[in-house]
Design goal:
Radius of gyration: 16 Å
Distance between the termini: 18 Å
CATH class: Alpha Beta
Structural class: alpha+beta
Mean pLDDT: 91
Largest sheet: 5 strands, antiparallel
Number of strands: 5
CATH architecture: Roll
Strand content: 35-45%
Length: 140
């Protein structure tokens, strides 16, 4: 059984359009914040990865399905988990919910790269900290 990372957010006026509905691109920001908090929860940060391993984690692709709208002052939960992993990248599923309603389902492909932009092996220390959050289908 895998574990999940959880991150809660509240929708502010700046996140919405004139009708009080969350602007679609802002969901990408919410997902990024949740991934950043997931890194913090296992003792890392993007800055630390850059300094210690001379690497960055970038989004290679993102497939996002908008199922329902979020509105001004809604409280949302973002659940993130690692779906699969390879030597240089991993796929993360992220689901945004309001109460029991799923409003966004995203599949993100993340890649570790060096300063030249070339894929590099995920550091073992990071891999081992993420391991409890892997889903069943892991490819090494």
């Amino acid at each position: 059984m895998h574990e999940n990372f959880f991150h809660k957010i509240k929708i502010y006026y700046e996140d919405t359009d004139s009708g009080g509905v969350v602007y679609y691109a802002n969901y990408l920001k919410f997902l990024e914040r949740a991934r950043t908090e997931a890194l913090f929860s296992i003792g890392f940060s993007n800055k630390k990865i850059k300094e210690k391993y001379a690497s960055l984690i970038i989004v290679k692709s993102c497939n996002i399905e908008y199922k329902k709208s979020a509105h001004l002052e809604d409280e949302l939960t973002i659940r993130s988990f690692v779906k699969s992993i390879s030597k240089t990248s991993f796929f993360m599923n992220q689901i945004i919910t309001k109460d029991d309603d799923e409003i966004v389902d995203a599949k993100i492909h993340l890649v570790f790269i060096n300063k030249e932009g070339k894929p590099v092996k995920i550091p073992e220390e990071i891999y081992s900290k993420f391991k409890p959050y892997f889903c069943d289908s892991i490819k090494i």
